[in-house]
Amino acid sequence: MQFSELPLHTSILKAVAEERFHTPTLVQQKTIPFVLKKKNAIVCAQTGTGKTAAFALPIIQLLLDKRDTEKREKKIKSLILTPTRELAIQILENFISYTKYTDLSTTAVFGGVSLEPQKKILANGADILIATPGRLIDLQIQEKIDLSSTDIFVLDEADLMLDMGFINDVKKIEALCPKKKQTLLFSATIPEKINELAKTTFKDPVKIEINPDETTAKNIGQLLYYLPKKNKTDLCLYLLRNTINGKIIIFRRTKFGVDKLEESLLKNGYKVASIHGDKTQSIRNKAIEDFKNKKSNILIATDVAARGIDIVNVDAIINFDLPNVPETYIHRIGRTGRAGKSGIAFSFCSPDENGYIKMIEKLIEKTIKVIDEHPYPISRPKHKKKQPNTISKHKKGRKSEASKKKKKRWY
User: Fold this and answer.
1) Residues 89 and 54 in one domain
2) 74 alpha-carbon distance from chain centroid
């Protein structure tokens, strides 16, 4: 299937072609037709599968159709709710690209920057609004937002929204929209609380699920290094000097870890940028722009800060700290190997992280290749086999009698 085969306006197809997108991804092929039919949908697919275009392109089409039949008003027609500032900016950039040959207007509101300019933009009206929950509620409290004409409500990265504690805010915002609307939920995973939210929010939704093994790209090489925790920085420097080239994203679990590694790499002469939740929005934006524009070739990030990154031509991922949620591993490595290009992911595993590897390999249904030839190797963890139960019936009986005696009441 080609994008040209989908019932999309020529202005949308022209914009998509200029982005050098020709063949829809699997999630786009499955989702776009249902959104165009104005169906409610719950879509489960991993990061890097093209989810943004899966809702953006049909939303633009639906708004263009409505524009042709109704009088234009300066009111929000579509609301996309997303958990982080980076995601909001990324989605805004995508909508601007896809609507360049239309007269639809798109804006975004999010925290970390001044509220006043956002109020002024909203006063001029917008067809499409992308927002983070906290900032949207701030604007609603100040009566600077009107969602009464919202026909399409999108909840993006719903599982991350849950992890960040935004679910109650989501419910408040959804209640500000009309009862009669099209609702779309996109998530990498569907935990029970998301299911509960969907039951109260959706009416007869279409469920679309892209399995993890379909989305763990075949063109991403995956390598695993077992080593002591104290040697992780040394191994990182060793690989950067001898093995890994190009644009690299390094994932760490904590903000402190990001800052510490950045300091080490800068001391060793590497061009590094970093992002995490304690950095201001302007600093985070600059770090991402420097990485995109090759002013730095290494970006160090925490998972939450990095969820919104969509950067082409990332050559390698380093999982400096393994994620304790296996789905996060797929999010991370999905930052490379995009648009049919190859990529590689290097994962460092210290003894305290052995359990995480087991969960990851179970999820992706694949054993990650182990590299033993490096300066800081340790023995691979041995998987304990369950011992067969060889207790005879006679012994079992005696053990049972002894247990009964122990359980005898003291009164």
Assistant:
1) yes
2) 31
Grouping H, G, I as helix, E, B as strand and the rest as coil, residue 221 is strand
Q: Check: CB of residue 343 under 8 Å from CB of residue 220.
A: yes
**Which CB contacts under 8 angstroms, 24+ apart, belong to 197-202?**
197/158, 197/167, 197/170, 197/171, 198/42, 200/171, 201/174, 202/40, 202/42
Shared domain check, 107 and 189: yes
Tally of structural domains, the chain: 2
Does residue 29 fall inside a structural domain? yes
Overall average pLDDT of the 353-364 stretch: 91
Q: Which two tokens stand for residue 396?
A: 């079992």
Q: Tell me the pLDDT tens digit for each residue of 58-103.
A: 999 999 998 765 656 678 999 999 998 888 988 999 999 999 999 9
The distance of Cα 372 from the centroid of its chain, to the nearest Å, equals 31
Helix (H/G/I), strand (E/B), else coil: 179: coil
What is the C-alpha to C-alpha distance for residues 194 and 255, in angstroms, rounded to an integer? 27
Largest CA distance in the chain: 87
Q: Which of 172, 166, 162 is nearest to 132 (CA)?
A: 166
